[in-house]
Amino acid sequence: MKSVTVVRAAPPPEFASLLEQTGPIGVAIVTLDEGIDVPGMLTDCDPTTVQIGQRVAMVHRRIYSEEGVVRYGVKFRPIL
Fold first, then answer.
1. Ramachandran category for residue 53: left, alpha or beta (phi over 0 → left; psi -120 to 50 → alpha)
2. pTM of the predicted model, to two decimals?
3. Quick one: which H or E segment has residue 17?
4. N or C terminus: which one in the chain shows less Cβ crowding within 10 Å?
């Protein structure tokens, strides 16, 4: 990971219920093996313990639900 932060308040509207359900949301800029930097949410971890430079794996997860439709996409899980 190149950069990481934790969202604790005032997320975009589509993520407000996620923040209420799960608590802080980890967000990172990840450098893929191909050299491309992409933004993404962290999953399956305590976002306050993730460190810059830590390797992550891309996984498919539920991102959010809006207007009764569930949105799926990729998130990043730290490799321990």
1. left
2. 0.81
3. helix 16-22
4. C
Q: Cα separations (Å) of 31 from 8, 50, 61?
A: 24, 15, 19
Q: What is the helix (H) or strand (E) element at residue 19, kind and residue range?
A: helix 16-22
Give the span between the Cα atoms of 43 and 25, in whole angstroms.
8
At residue 10, φ and ψ (nearest 5 deg) are: 55, 50
- Residue 56 has a CB neighbour count (10 Å cut-off) of 21
pLDDT in tens, 7-59: 887 777 777 777 788 888 899 999 999 999 999 999 999 999 999 999 999 99
Decide: 43 and 79 in contact? Cβ < 8 Å.
no
